[in-house]
Amino acid sequence: MKRILVTGGAGYIGSHTVLQLVDQGYDVVVVDSLIRGYRDAVDPKLLREVDLHDGLALDAIFGEKPVDAVIHFAAFISVGESMQKPEIYFNNNTNGSVSLFTAMHRAGVKHVVFSSTAAIFGTPGVSPIAETVPQAPINPYGESKLMTEHVLDWFDKIYSLRAIALRYFNASGADPKGRVGERHDPETHLIPLLLRAAQTGTPVTLFGEDYPTPDGTCIRDYVHVTDLAQAHILAVENLMNGGPSNRFNVGTGKGFSIRQVMDSVERVTGRKVPYTVGPRREGDPPELVADSSKLKSTLGWKPEFVELDSIVQTAWNWANRK
Prior knowledge:
By secondary structure, this protein is an alpha/beta fold. The protein folds into 2 domains: 3-171 and 223-250, Rossmann fold (3-Layer(aba) Sandwich), CATH 3.40.50.720; 190-220 and 253-319, UDP-galactose 4-epimerase, domain 1 (Alpha-Beta Complex). It is 40% helix and 18% strand. The chain has helices at residues 12-23, 55-64, 79-84, 86-107, 140-159, 190-200, 225-240, 258-269, 293-299, 308-319; strands spanning 3-7, 27-32, 47-49, 69-72, 111-117, 162-168, 170-172, 204-207, 219-220, 222-224, 246-250, 256-257, 275-278, 287-288. The strands form 4 sheets. The chain has a 7-stranded parallel beta sheet, sandwiched between helices. The two termini are 35 Å apart.
């Protein structure tokens, strides 16, 4: 049985990936500091509460049993916060990753799938975005992830650490079986904020309605979290089967504006979403839509959730769990 170490496995995308790995018969160990993860999002038997900067603790975990590959999610993810506190993003996201990769090298682990982001592209000016589009981040979050991709390039050249970076777009939805879902504190993601407004009647703030888009609000590619999880599993299997280092964009290829997402939430919930309009958030590009054809052709990835309403429905089911 292959053993996969998952960092950030108590977080949103990590916890969904852990469930799918276990469902598919993998031996999983989760490393999470729980600074922003949730203890109850992961089986306690799998969890090791460790910060990635703690090299000795990582050595001990790698020494428990041989690890075949690592899936690396652990990161801070808020664009807005990164514009206010860039230092914690470079320290946590980039320096923490260097500590992890160094521990992997010491343990002789040669395969890692890295959770990257569409934020590395900045404001690309083209849509959809292929892997060949130049990377020019406009916020420290995106820069911290791009720096980590560069670190991986050098670890591959020097230490033969083979890595696949998945540059995904807007993760959304919840486990269709209702086992885990989306939680952030504070919540910054659009769909759960809209659902909360529909539930409570408290207005949600839309940041900017003067973008150069058809309705003035930002356009994003919403990819369901279980489809993202499956992309990570396909990537790690590709590496363990001898595949080379690579980079892939992950999204549905469909872009939806904030107002279109609001319309979807109103259809699914049967409730109006109260809202106010605020100024643009610094660091937000007008449009980010993925070209995932390389991922589909190379790894055979095929998203199950391609309709926005079906994605929102799983998030609504999670929001209404008992």
